[in-house]
Amino acid sequence: MGLDAVRIRDAQRRDRLLLLNAFAVVLLTLLGAAGESLGMDRLLKVNTVKRRIHSLFRQGVMLYELIPTMPEHRLRPLMEKFAEMLQQMRAFSGAFCCI
Predict the structure, then answer these.
(1) Which H or E run includes 73?
(2) CA 54 – CA 20 distance, rounded (Å)
(3) d(Cα 30, Cα 36) in Å, to the nearest integer?
(4) DSSP string, 4-62
(5) Measured distance CA(23)–CA(29) in Å, rounded
């Protein structure tokens, strides 16, 4: 993660940064899983291979980058599926129920 190049004096600050990083990885992986369940992974491939080419995390990163320019008819099902999968995760639904 490149932490050897960074000096963080406060251990609590380091721990908070690592926690935010862990949340980001989980959310991007979940976005990739939502996209794959909707068949959007075939739009991210450069060839016609049947097996998974990109990891769910990488698919999530690619979909996240496409969100600003994604047409409404593709964005809405993706966000609905992502919200549904997020609600199924007890850790997130309990921790972020107030937000």
Answers:
(1) helix 72-88
(2) 23
(3) 10
(4) GG-----HHHHHHHHHHHHHHHHHHHHHHHHHHHTTTHHHH-SS--SS--S-HHHHHHH
(5) 10
Q: Give the Cα separation of 76 and 91 in Å (integer).
A: 24
Could you tell me if 37 and 22 are in contact, meaning their C-beta atoms sit under 8 angstroms apart? no
**Model-level pTM greater than 0.70?**
yes
Could you give phi then psi for residue 56, rounded to 5 degrees? -60, -35
Residue that the structure tokens 């919200």 belong to: 83
Convert the pLDDT of each residue in 12-59 to its tens digit: 988 888 888 888 999 999 999 999 999 888 877 766 677 778 899 999
Query: Where does the pLDDT of residue 70 fall: very low under 50, low under 70, confident under 90, or very high at 90 and above?
Result: very high
Cα–Cα distance for residue pair 85/43, rounded to 1 Å: 21
Q: Residue 34's CB: how many other CB atoms inside 10 A?
A: 24
